[in-house]
Amino acid sequence: MTHSLDLTAGVVTLTRALIDLPSESGREAELADAVEAALRALPHLTVGRVGNSVVARTGLGRPERALIAGHLDTVPAAGNLPSRLADGSVHGLGACDMKGGVAVALRLAAGILEPVRDVTYVFYECEEVEGDRNGLARIGAERPALLADAGLAILMEPSDAGVEAGCQGTLTADIVVEGARAHTARAWQGVNAAHKAARVLQRLDDHTPERVVIDGLEYREGLSAVAVRAGVAGNVVPDECVVTVNCRFAPSRSVEEAEAYVRGLFPEYEVRVTEVVPGAPPHLDRIGGLARALGAEPRAKLGWTDVARFAALGVPALNYGPGDPSLAHTAGEHVPVEHLERCESRLRAWLS
Amino acid sequence: MTHSLDLTAGVVTLTRALIDLPSESGREAELADAVEAALRALPHLTVGRVGNSVVARTGLGRPERALIAGHLDTVPAAGNLPSRLADGSVHGLGACDMKGGVAVALRLAAGILEPVRDVTYVFYECEEVEGDRNGLARIGAERPALLADAGLAILMEPSDAGVEAGCQGTLTADIVVEGARAHTARAWQGVNAAHKAARVLQRLDDHTPERVVIDGLEYREGLSAVAVRAGVAGNVVPDECVVTVNCRFAPSRSVEEAEAYVRGLFPEYEVRVTEVVPGAPPHLDRIGGLARALGAEPRAKLGWTDVARFAALGVPALNYGPGDPSLAHTAGEHVPVEHLERCESRLRAWLS
After folding, report:
1. ipTM of the complex as predicted
2. What CATH class is the domain B11-166+280-351?
3. Looking at chain B from residue 233 to 292, which residues have their Cβ under 8 Å from any Cβ of chain A?
4. pTM for the full model?
5. Distance set, CA B81 to CA A316, B77, B147, B192, B346 (Å)
6. CATH number of the structural domain B169-277
7. What residue spans define the domains of chain B?
8. Active site residues of B
9. Which residue of A has its CA nearest to B327?
10. What is the pLDDT of residues A330-347, one digit of tens each?
11. A214 contacts: CB under 8 Å, gap ≥ 6
């Protein structure tokens, strides 16, 4: 049975209804069914489905087309269901990341029959898990035409109802320090790789990441050990110590440049890059007008978001959504009613 | 059915028979049954059993009593069964550690009816596993009188058919480095515990362990990181890094002194001692005569062995057994026939 979503309900009611239809990553089918059914009931939209992602498009022949996207999935519940309204905020799983943003987008889709620019609404699955399951990536791979004709994209990631432009890239690499095993009773016969890793960790501690300014926005980089692993047995001098580092790099660096940058810091070690994903430049030249219309001074987005996927598709994108991003994935996540209403009214004004 | 062991067979044949009766730690029953049956057939010995350990004692009323001990168990097989004789050595699981030594002791028990000093022969279980399963410890706890009247003990641990006196103590501790979590995209909001652990690892690398001389023997100490663990998630600055160190300390230090020594090296960190076991002094004043009789210049034992259990019982002990200790626990372990024959003949001369 498909649940019924009333897109004419107020944004708070709709946010709570979305929260109360749980949709942990990989289990979005019920919610996707409900979203699809609600959108198919609207004659001004053309609706398509890819997996458990839903795309709805106006087709008014406007000279411009905007894309508004939100992911349907959440991280696993943490005792934060069902939804509740308290202290001026909607609380519950996904309230902040990002059912509040999805509610705003659904209200716009249902309520603006003749927007001044055509709109592509995308509600997608599996944002919170491995990139190869990402619903937006899947649409881009299987039906790129659904996305590629947009002139810009708005990703409803929580950004305190402000505009966060672009995003950092991210690189993960293992730095391998080698030694030679020995029995700890004769430690001098070996070379302790964990002891030698002190140089790598000290270099990380001494490192001052760059602050890169693009279009007036500061992308502050970071280089962090996120894991250290060494150990063979309690009586063995370890012959290997692996320091895993995560580098967050400004979108001015390509993935090749980011990789060369990290390798250049550790020239005497084996560096195994295990993941590298490009960032997205802010494209203030193309999103500046939208940011002004939303009444928000653009800030640099420091995390990685799917705006990078849009950038890779040639679609400049920004993050704009209700909720404090630092509450994402926390048991206490919530979204202020004021954010929900402000995001909806500003976007409605821009589209009307 | 109890297997039959022929203790009148040559030492090579007996070593091979013992190897071919597998006795991984915890599975010594068959071998213990065979040893017990063979010893009970000898009227000059009084035989007792504790678990899967066997004790056989002469009772000639001699003014001195020596104890000769070997463990029956081995580490798990590594494709090194059955036994074989090649290149002047017996090869196979436990050949070196320490069925060769057990064969020597069994030959002495069977062949010397009226030794010039009374002898307590101990063949025990579970030496290769956790200390609370150790057969020697169990005899000491349940029937201490079986052990305590010995004036000195010979542990048939592989020592290249030389005398290794005393043993080091061992201490294991976790050194805890604390930080504060943050998202790696905002790493500057946290304190990276892995980066801060550089100081601990560098201090270990810079540390020069002491060389402690006791009775003319050098006990070279060691302090080694044996494990490093840090890591919360790939995008999180870790708030804790734990460096596990293993300290091998000279028997001149008590466990309390060893603990104070390690804590004193890391005064600004939490140090959690997880295990500390005393060493054993060489007691050359009491074992020097035996060492001379065995024709061996005593060396310091650098590993930890059950001689420390004898020391704790007030029985000075030394390690004396056939085989290269560095081959213990390796798939290719073997014991030279020359070692077997030398150990047997020297001990036989000392007892006859």
Report:
1. 0.84
2. alpha beta
3. 233-238, 241, 243-244, 246, 248
4. 0.83
5. 68, 7, 33, 50, 29
6. 3.30.70.360
7. 11-166+280-351, 169-277
8. 73, 127
9. A183
10. 889 999 999 999 999 999
11. A166, A250, A251, A252, A281, A282, A300
